[in-house]
Design goal:
Layout: H1 3-12, E1 17-21, H2 28-35, E2 42-50, E3 53-60, E4 63-65, H3 67-74, E5 79-81, H4 84-87, E6 109-113, E7 121-125, E8 131-136, H5 137-144, E9 147-149, E10 152-154
Parallel strand pairs: 2-7, 3-6, 6-9
Antiparallel strand pairs: 1-8, 2-3, 2-5, 4-10, 7-8
């Protein structure tokens, strides 16, 4: 989903957002630094395989995903990181690693770490490695309806 389609979706839903350009960066920490967004406010999207099904796990850039905690929290048998080759075809138009956290737009369930809800605003990749979208967390939650859990740990 290129930035234009994501922006069109947000506009159609009447959501207030801000597009933030930043120098090309690939890791969540680099993106936070280059865009001057705190690692706590920047949401990173991690694609996981839960009992064989691809899903999104969204957490603050300042945290690491605890797969055991995620598995336990959702009552799954196993949750593991998905390999890029498993999911890159699911995100047509997005650069690998820059997927926005809207699983509903890609046919995936979305799990969000509860830490993200503590900030009024979140920012996330807009489908590429050079732009972020920043919006109110409340608007994100209303659009996405993610399952909120606790599965992030500080690095």
């Amino acid at each position: 989903m290129p930035v234009a389609k994501l922006v069109e979706y947000l506009n159609r839903k009447g959501v207030d957002y801000r597009l933030i350009a930043h120098p090309r960066a690939f890791t969540a920490q680099e993106i936070a630094e280059r865009s001057r967004i705190t690692g706590h406010e920047l949401a990173k999207t991690v694609i996981v395989r839960i009992d064989g099904t691809l899903s999104m796990a969204v957490l603050p850039a300042s945290e690491l995903i605890d797969l055991d905690e995620l598995t336990l929290a959702i009552g799954a048998t196993v949750a593991e990181l998905a390999d890029e080759s498993e999911f890159e075809r699911c995100f047509n138009g997005c650069e690998v690693g820059a997927m926005p956290p809207f699983g509903n737009l890609f046919g995936m369930k979305t799990y969000v770490d509860a830490e993200l809800a503590l900030d009024d605003r979140i920012a996330f990749n807009a489908g590429n490695h050079e732009e972020l979208i920043q919006m109110r967390y409340e608007d994100f939650e209303e659009l996405e309806r993610p399952t909120m859990l606790e599965f992030g740990v500080y690095a």
